[in-house]
Amino acid sequence: MRAILKRDFNSYFNSPIGYSFVAILLAVMGVWFIIYNCLGKGSSLNAVFNNSVLVFLFIVPLLSVKMLTEEQKTKTDQILLTAPVTVPQIVLGKYFAALAVYGVALLTTLIYVVIIALFGTPSLGEIISTYIGFILLGAAFISIGLYISSLTDNQFLGVLYSFVVLLIMFLLPLILPYVTNPVLNAVLSWFSISERFSSFVSGIFGLDAIIYYICVCAFFVVLTIFSVEKRRWR
């Protein structure tokens, strides 16, 4: 698994995808930082993180298409599937490689925390809680993208499907009040992945939200393992 993780992590930065992902996230958060913290003279990063969540819908599919869709298109997945590694090791290696790239992108955003600390009085607890929420939200989004990337060998469709699914899950809080069926409402509420993120941004460190995101990640990673395993024996 470590060999796959290392190979995939390096491949992100041997192509424009890894650099593009980091640059886009840093640029978008930079714009909100200038608006709310520099021009608005605020010491809280809440608005920066809340408004930056939307960019995930556009850039997470960039990571997703690099995971399994590209492997299928170039037929290198056949080499992996016949190698002396298990399917769970392949899937987890790719998942953690994408998470590592995401982690690198988040590390670059610490520059905004440093600037706030130099010229203001940020709430350390709130910032820590927000970053934990950002990590969990990103991990969940990437797990969903990973599963979708296992279903197609078309890179454009992989990006499009990932974007559409993440957009729907992002907009669920707006749809739920209009769903009158209690069972359907409960099911849709479970998939409302962005709603729980707001509690982290507010400085509320909820154990139930952490467990929820871990369950979402595990659920879609397991689905991906089944999807790849099915293709292996086709």
Give a description of the structure.
This protein has one domain (2-232). The chain is mainly α and 234 residues long. The relative contact order is 0.14. The chain is globular. 81% of the residues lie in helices and 0% in strands.
Largest sheet composition? none
Number of separate structural domains: 1
User: Helical percent range?
Assistant: over 70%
What is the H/E string? HHHHHHHHHHH
Specify Rg, calculated over alpha carbons.
18 Å
* Poorly predicted runs: none
Structural class: mainly alpha
Shape: globular
Q: Determine the number of helices (DSSP H or I, runs of at least 4 residues).
A: 11
In round numbers, the mean pLDDT is 80
Number of strands: 0
Distance between the termini: 23 Å
Q: Estimate the strand proportion.
A: under 5%
Write the layout of secondary structure elements.
Blueprint: H1 2-13, H2 16-39, H3 46-74, H4 77-82, H5 87-108, H6 110-119, H7 124-149, H8 155-175, H9 182-190, H10 197-201, H11 207-232
Q: How would you concisely characterize the structure shown here?
A:
This protein has 234 residues and is mostly helical. It has one domain.
Provide key terms for this protein.
single chain, 234 residues, mainly alpha, 0% strand
